[in-house]
Design a protein that fits this description.
The complex is a heterodimer of chains A (107) and B (207). Chain A has 107 residues and is α+β, with helices and mostly antiparallel strands. Chain A is 19% helix and 30% strand. Chain B has one domain. The longest helix of chain B has 38 residues. Chain B is globular and about 55 Å long. Chain B starts with a helix and ends with a helix. The chains are: A alpha+beta (107), B mainly alpha (207). Chain B: GO terms for molecular function: FMN binding; heme binding; oxidoreductase activity, acting on diphenols and related substances as donors.
């Protein structure tokens, strides 16, 4: 198969990458919170209340770049990846398995 | 002389068998450690998703590089022995790649309920993972000598499924993380070797 039509086969192999054309790019890999110096950040533990108010169950919290990142499960059991501003603790953007499902106004 | 020539291939086969067994054990070690970490609560299932997926992709790359490298450079040079050895363990690498993909699924299932897994199945980043695993399962399931004999030419054709499995696995990775550099770096060695092989085959067909 590969021997007879190598060019066509390679093109066929790369075809799944066309999935990206059909799915809008949602780059959670480079979320920037512009949160300034760490001295002004609120403790990450304070996020727990914020997440509880969302009705989510925390799986994990961590610092990602200049943001607080939370992995949580919502009431429907969906796993979410949310970014919060470390100074205001405002919810900025939420992804579900790479798809953006929430973005704060003006962010 | 007669006695010696009869024993030599047998000794070589036994040696290859021992090497393959040692390689299989070595390849299983990271997986066993990850399972132990998760079982004893030292790591979250979620945190083991990326290492298992990445290891699976890397092993696929190693399995897929051996053939084209031998085709391009042959084995009649000082590094030929390395390439021959690499070819010998290619099947082990492929099976280990599937093993880590399956472990990736185990950690995913441990992190989710069945209802939640079904709920997120239509998400592109998720169904691409399932598809890559299904495609990889076929060559892995026939990676034993009896299957090679039974399937003959069809065996090799089925092994080629590792190529779409690899590309779809990269798509799965990208759709989840959107970190282009990591996926591109993993694709680069194969893209280079495939391009070189294509160029060589074209030049050979012209002559």
């Amino acid at each position: 198969m590969i021997r007879s039509h190598p060019g066509r086969t390679i093109a066929l192999l790369f075809a799944p990458l066309a999935i990206f054309a059909a799915v809008p790019a949602q780059a959670d890999g480079n979320v920037q919170c512009k949160s300034g110096p760490k001295e002004n950040w609120k403790p990450i533990d304070k996020l727990k209340k914020q997440v509880w108010l969302e009705g989510w169950e925390i799986i994990k919290t961590q610092v990602e770049g200049d943001c607080y990142e939370v992995y949580a499960r919502n009431g429907e059991g969906q796993v979410l990846e949310a970014f919060f501003h470390p100074v205001t603790l405002k919810k900025l953007v939420v992804f579900r398995r790479g798809q953006e499902i929430f973005r704060a106004k003006g962010f | 002389m007669v006695r010696g020539s009869g024993k030599r291939p047998l000794r070589g086969m036994r040696r290859r068998g021992r090497v393959k067994l040692a390689v299989s054990i070595a390849l299983a070690v990271p997986g066993v450690l990850m399972l132990a970490d998760w079982w004893q609560g030292r790591a979250l299932a979620m945190d083991l998703l990326h290492p298992t997926g990445e290891l699976s992709v890397r092993l696929m790359i190693l399995a897929m590089l051996a053939g084209p490298l031998v085709e391009l450079f042959g084995t009649a040079h000082p590094l030929g022995r390395v390439l021959r050895g690499w070819l010998t363990i290619r099947r082990n690498l492929g099976v280990a790649a599937f093993g880590y993909a399956a472990l990736h699924l185990v950690f995913y299932a441990a992190d989710m309920s069945v209802a939640a897994m079904l709920d997120e199945l239509p998400i592109p980043a998720i169904w691409t993972g399932w598809l890559a695993l299904a495609l990889l399962a076929i060559p892995a399931a026939i990676s034993f000598d009896a299957a090679v004999k039974a399937l003959r030419r069809r065996w090799k054709q089925l092994q080629y499924l590792v190529y779409p499995a690899f590309i779809i696995a990269l798509a799965h990775w990208l759709l989840l993380d959107w970190h282009w550099l990591g996926a591109a770096l993993h694709l680069a060695p194969l893209a280079l070797i495939w391009t070189l092989r294509l160029a060589r085959r074209r030049s050979l067909s012209r002559t």
